[in-house]
Batch of 3 targets.
Target 1
Amino acid sequence: MYREAIEEYRKALELAGPHRERLAGLARVYGLLGNTKEARRFRASLEEAAQQGSVSVAEMATVDLALGEKDRALDRLREAARQGRLAPLTAGPEFDPLRSPPYAEFFRAAAASRAGTVR
């Protein structure tokens, strides 16, 4: 399944050029496959695009998570929250690694903040 995803992302890159969603998708798939070298290469391309503001923090965090870098992903999300740039997080499975302790507290606090119930 992952190999087919890589082929499809690569075809999309060839046909339509680099785009944040394609780069993030490839980085995630490579990370999930354990090919950290390729995942980090595509993450570096994303980080360059992020400097121009065209990549969301959530996209970057999902790449970090695919690489098993939970702390880095959480640091990105916390910084975005401090800057008021954290979009509502989805319930997508890509964030599941952060839904257990000690990371889960961030999600509870973010949800409470959006609901206006921060204590």
Note: The two ends are 44 Å apart (CA to CA).
Target 2
Amino acid sequence: MTMRGHLARLASHLHSGDSRAAGFSTLESIVAVGILAIALLPLYDFQLTIVDGTRRLEGQFGKTTTHQKVDDYLKSLQPVDLGKGSEQLGPIALTWTVEPGPISRPVLTGNGLSGRFSLSLVTIRYNAESDQGITVEGALTRLFWTETAPFFSP
């Protein structure tokens, strides 16, 4: 049989009216969609987990960034500027209180005598709130020097 004969036979078989060879039935389609839906549920759950983790990380990153900005600012303040108690750092509203430490020691000269300054540890407790709704609280301990005697004393 020639190639043309094979094609004619195949065409007559396809158009013979056999409904089983025509495609999927309705029931087969419903079962296929159900299997597909069941197979996609874990992927959907995985995507929700990824989105939730991303939101948590963004929130944590915002808090970490706010803490870092506040710590850097409070570390850069001079002792005389600590009395202000509040500052606006761009989008961050910062308030703080200073708690003097229990220990204050004089700085000794090369001869072992008390010098012009004393050193003390202070704790700075702060509360910062950004315009994005991020609120952080923390404490920072700093070493401060205070002048105890004038530079030229008679």
Note: Strands lie at 86-89, 92-108, 114-130, 135-147.
Target 3
Amino acid sequence: MPRLEFSHVHSYASSTEGISLPVVLRSGGERIDLFASVDTGASNCLFERAHGEGLNLDIEAGDAKTFSTGAVSEDDCRRSNFPPGIT
């Protein structure tokens, strides 16, 4: 039978709604530590504009994309391609 092994284990409170994990975003020499809500079925990761600016990313140079959710009818976002290896 196949077996999965992980180098890190993180426990989260099952009493709270959703899953939040510690995340480190890096770009160049900049680093931002934060907790991110995880949606295991999501096709995109969304972070506050301030996080991208804190990494010195040119937000306006990203591709514009509009998201619709149950809570918000439309939210304009910019897509920035992070290099592989975000931890």
Note: The radius of gyration is 15 Å.
